[in-house]
Amino acid sequence: MAETRKLHPLLKLLLEMGPLGVFFGVNTAFGIFAGTAAFMGATVVALLVSYGIARTIPIMPLVTAVFVLIFGGLTLYLADDLFIKLKPTIVNLLFATILFIGLVTGRLFIKLLLESAFQLTDRGWLLLTRAWIGFFLLLAAVNEFVWRNYPTDIWVNFKVFGVMPMTLLFTFMLFPIILRHSIQPVDDGEKKSDIDTLRD
Q1: What is the pTM of this model?
Q2: Is 19 exposed, middle or buried (0-12, 13-18, 19+ CB in 10 A)?
Q3: Range of the domain at 185
């Protein structure tokens, strides 16, 4: 089995933002349908590069890529840009729903995604889960507002230059929670987990 490797943070950011940059540039030059096709192609390339280097693909970029291909394909096949505009709403609602289901069933899925980077108390993971649920719902609502009330080019600009700064700012705002609830790694026998108590 191939050994997994971590991507350099700058390369990771480039692979995440690159397809959006391609989308913006091609849309500006040739319109939304050409931009959508380029976005789909660039998304696949980014996944392949990520896998080629790290030998693994993170679940969230993979899910996002699947929806890009599905809704982008519908956009091109039906010649209707509604589908590519709906994609961010549906993806963000999906992530919020998955986290919420995990929350009410006592499984903090965000811990599975981030525990390799952070060691937090269960209270910390609970707070991060609630925060990300709210943020995903906010992104879905803002996307709906923008595409329904503004021209396509404005929506593309928001998608490229609005969502990422919002996400970076939100992540920065979570640092106090991460610092306050950080713990040193301990043996499995010493770990405590009582989600039901935290919810009381």
Answers
A1: 0.80
A2: buried
A3: 81-200
Q: What is the pLDDT of residue 197?
A: 45
Examine the domain organization and report whether 19 and 85 are in the same domain. Answer: no
Q: Are residues 71 and 117 in the same domain?
A: no
How many domains are contained in the chain?
A: 2
Q: Are residues 116 and 192 in the same domain?
A: yes
Co-location of 74 and 86 in the same domain = no
Tens of pLDDT, residue by residue over 2-57, are 556 776 667 777 888 888 889 999 999 999 999 999 999 999 999 999 888 888 87
